Amino acid sequence: QLSRFSVLPAKQRKWAQRYLPDGLHRPFNNFLASDARGMQRLLHVALFLSLTLAWHGGWRLVPGKKGQGQAVVWMDALAKHIGSILASMYFCCTLLWMALFACIKVPLIVEVKRLQRPTYKYYQTCTLALLAFLVDGYVLWRLILVVLCGVAVLCHHPWLLCLLVTDFFCQNATLATVLSGVVAPASFLVM
Questions:
Q1: What is the mean pLDDT of the chain?
Q2: Quick one: how far is CA 24 from the chain centroid?
Q3: How do residues 51-106 score in pLDDT, each as one tens digit?
């Protein structure tokens, strides 16, 4: 059923089947062969890169001098280049995972929203589906990690790379349970 899903509305599906290649309007036609394994590998690579970046940052970051204006700097130019390369790889890997996950999840949410609200126009349904996708905790966590990595590289704040190791809380179910047990009482204190 999912491999026959088309991103086009029902009125235009026959036209698309006649004149468009399947890959243009049916995103799952060729993708479902080994997508779960590939996406899991992307997550494992991102986790390894985040751990490597945290280790590299802990080993090669030193306090900055007062005249430099930065609290933390790389020990030498080689450490800076290695950190930038690892951070760029993490950024690309996580961004690719998010794009692939969006290509899988958003069309499914669109179908659910279409059934829930049949009077909505197609762009309204797509907007609601995209918002529902972005509000998901797992996706939001990944988005925060990508933003942290981007800010660390582009704004020259290398200490932010050490925060990427929190990816363990997202990928490990036991650590996620511990984190939710710690965060739940803290939310009452914040109020």
A1: 82
A2: 24
A3: 999 899 889 888 888 776 778 888 899 999 999 999 999 999 999 888 888 888 88
Q: What is the rounded CA–CA span in Å between residue 156 and residue 144?
A: 17
Contact indicator for 149, 85 with CB cutoff of 8 Å = no
Does the pTM surpass 0.85? The reply is no
Length reported for the chain: 191
Q: What are phi and psi of 189, to 5 degrees?
A: -70, -35
State the Cα–Cα distance between residues 114 and 103, nearest whole angstrom.
Answer: 17
Q: Radius of gyration over alpha carbons of the chain, in Å?
A: 21
Beta strands of 122-162 (E only): which ranges?
none
Of the candidates 155, 159, 153, which has an alpha carbon nearest to the alpha carbon of residue 81? Answer: 153
